[in-house]
Every structure is written in structure tokens, then in C-alpha cells.
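Input.
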Amino acid sequence: MKKLFLFAYITLLYLVSCQHKPSPHAVTSTADFDKAYNFLTVNQDSAFYYFNKLVAESRDSLQVALAYTNMAMIQSDAGDYFGAQESLISSLRFLREGHLEHRPYQAQNFNELAITSIKLKNYDEAIDFCSQGLALTRDSSFQTTILNNQANAYRYKRNYRSALELYRKAITLTKNGSKAHARIQTNYAITKWLNKPVYNPVPELNKALYIRIAENDLWGQNSSYAHLADYYRIARPDSALIYANRMYQVARRLGSPDDEMEALQKLIALSPSSVSKQYFSRFNFLNDSLQTRRNAAKNQFALIRFNTEKHKADKLKLQKDNADQNSQIIKQWAIIVIIVIFAVAGGIIYRQHSRRKQAETEAKAQQQIQEYQLSTSKKIHDVVANGLYQVMTEIEHQPDLDKDLLATRIDVLYKQSRAISYNKPLELIHQDFHQEITDMLDSFSSPQTTFLTAGHNEQTWTGINISIFNEIKTILLELLINMKKHSQADRVVLKFQRDAQGLRIKYQDNGIGLPEPIPLGNGLTNTGNRIKAIHGSITFGTNNGGGLLIDISIPIV
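Output.
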């Protein structure tokens, strides 16, 4: 919570400065941005929700970066250190390297990455993050903070010599009598004691404690009492018990369950058994409730992100759907799109004809119009998406296809596309494998393209399970779509060979073939991945007379 106050203060100072000196990179104040900061110290779940909403909707890169940083601090306070690191790295992606106005926030992110790494006991990573943060800031007070964190990482690694060097450097940047001076002096003294157990750190620890009492720095007092209790634990356990009690009282005033549990651990070890039982009971209660609360917070953060992503995905899907929203107009939508495209093309053709008919003979103008029509038709065909292309193929060759069946097939296409994108096969219920392949080939057959098949009968598919068949059907569908869109073939031959080892499919057309080297676009890549997933193989070649030759081998277990 203390970190959230600090970062909110830094951000607000930046926003105020932007109001006095306009900058093209200033953060834009929006309703969600203001709500997020208003909730920051009141309701962290609500703050996280609005920051996450900014991430999903804002076009201001700096605003998105600040939202991610604040989300990370909320996650860190809730004990979700891995989630915090993920958010911090996302923030850095929206901050430009070398941009002076972004450097303070980059330094802040690297410092927070170091803190979370220390929490996760990844001390080498913490040291590296501190070095990156130091290179980005010229603020001596913030340099002091980063140096102190880097020294702490070395101390936890038990590299006391490096830690002491950094503490000495940091303490020269602080004002004597300040909170920062007291914090570093405390860490410096306790590290010297850890390095040399004969060293007495009490005078320095007490000096720092007096500063913290004078400044009413409860967090600092909590730290001082913890270190004094640790030092006196062996030599003077009665004094250690006094300081452990003081730490316990301050931790309760701060409402910090982590510090209260640390104090309780010291009290349990130092108190008589009759009293320690009460402390132990309190410790167990705090530990259980803290873990429950943190797990709930992690789940809540994940749920907020899931709902936001789902809303974003739904919104994108709605943008791609029909303006009319009725489930039964899918066919009408496709027809309307094609009518509009041809109307635009017809308008272009008409204007071309109007401009040229005065200077050219009617026969020459008509010939040019016909050539332009062919060119325009080809361009229209090239930009139609694979899914719409297949749907229109179904409509063209099966004009009596009812709306419900058409909607079902489009839904199947959508689910298959999602399955392919996640490299996961979609299990479907098939009644007649032979008939399904026949229907699919028929849907691509036309007066311009002749299909010849060999070895395709009911015995070809005997013993093949549904999942393998579904993959084979999808692979063939991808090849046929590529053929329709790219090959310019007018004859396609498919030969099926089935034996005890598996199924072999040979594809051959008289089209333009593939260039060398073969370009691995999305279609061929997905086809290769599917064949690999079912332990098959695929090879590409060229016919003697031109065209494409594909040999697919699939083992059947």
C-alpha cells in the first residue's frame, strides 16, 4: 500500500506539470483514468478493474504504461508477484527507450521488478533490474532507493562486501536525519553485524530509531524493532522480547499482516510457553486469513482480466458480424456484400467507358471494357476471405440449402478456424466418412475445374477414428481452398491408397505449381502442423508438365 501512495503521488505531479507545460506525450485525463486513481487507496479491486479497462481501450501509450505499473503494484501488495512482473514487463513495452519523459517510469518499473524478484528470492535478477533502473534516473533520492534495494539483494545473497559498498554509496546521497538516511543506516549497521558477528550495531540502530520516532515513521520503527530483536535474540533474550513486543504493536497499528506475523514468530520463540500458545494461535489465524485473502485477490485479478478480454473479443466479433444482428441473415449478408462489390466495380467500369467512348471506336471501347471487367472480377475474387469463399461455394452449388443448415456450416467453419489457431483438433460427430469427403469434393467441383478421384470408397475410411478423419478432412479442405484461390488449375486428381500401415493421399493438379523455395504461409504452415500432429508426412513436388504434386502419408493405428 505504501508503494501505491508513492507512485500515485509521482504520477499526479507529472500530470500537474503537464497542465502548465503542454507536451505531445502528456497523459490524457479520462473518466476511467480518474476513477482508477480515486479507487487506488480505497478499493484496489475497483482500481485494478479501471486500470485494466484503460489497458484494453486507451490509445495513449503512456497512459497504458502507467495503468500496467499501478496494476503491478496492486498485484504485488496482494502477494501476486508473478502477475506483478508480467504487468511491469507489459508497461515497459509501452514506454519508448531514449524518451526523456518516459525514463522516470522505466526506472520505476525496473525498481519494482527488483522488489518482486527479491520477494521471489531471485536475487541475481533483482540486482540486474536495479542496475537498469539506476541507468535511467538522475534523481538522487530515487537513486538512493534503488541502491538500497540492490544492496538488500546482495545482503540476502550473503554477499556482504558488495552490500556494504552500495549502502555506503547510498548513504552519501541522503540528508542526515531524514527517513531515507535512517533506513540505509539501519541496513548498513545490520549488514556489518551479519558480516562480523562481533560487531555491535546497537548505537547505529538506536540512532536510526530516534530519527524514525521523531519523524513519526511507523514503517521505519517497525523495521528498527525487528532488527534490534534479532540482534538481542541470543545474548539478551529479555531485551529481544521487549523489541519484539514493540514491533508487534506497531505492525498492528499499520494494519500490516506480514509484519504482524513476523513479530509473532519472534514472540513465539522468545515468550514463555504459557504465553506463546496465544501468539501461535494468532499467527495461525493471520496466516490462514492472509493466504485466503491473497488467493482470492489473485483469482479476482484473473477474473477481471478474463472478463475484460472476453468483452474485447465479443466487441471485435460484433464488429465483424452483420449490422442487422439477426442470426438468419448470414446468407443475405454474403449476397449483399457481393452485390455492393459488383455495383462498385460496375460503376468504375461505367466511368471508364464514359471517358473513353468519345476517343475510341465502339468496338475498341467494348473490348477494353471486357478486359477491365475480367481484371476487376479477378481482384474481387482474390480478396474474398477463405471462409466466405467456401460459404459462397456451398450457396453456388447447392442453391436449395436452407438457412439453418447454412448457419450450422458457418458455425462449424468458425469453430474449426478457432481450433486451428490453437493447434487443437475439434472433435465432431460424423455419420459417413466416405460421403462427407464426396460432398466436400463436389462443393469445389465446377465447369471450370474437373475433379478425378481414384481409390475413394467406403473401405478407404474403415477403422479410422473421428479425430484422425477430422484432421484429414481439414487438410484436404485447406489444399482445395489453396487450389481454388491460387493454382489456376482446371483439373485436379486425388488418389487414395489404403493398406495395413496407413493411408496415402496423392494430390495432383495442372496449375501453376509452387515457386522455389516454397513459401510457408499460414495455409501450408497449418497443414504441416496438422499432419505432424497425427504423425504423418507431406512432400511437395512438381509435375513433369507443370502443376503441383503433393504426397501425404498418414499412419492409421
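The longest helix spans residues 273-320.
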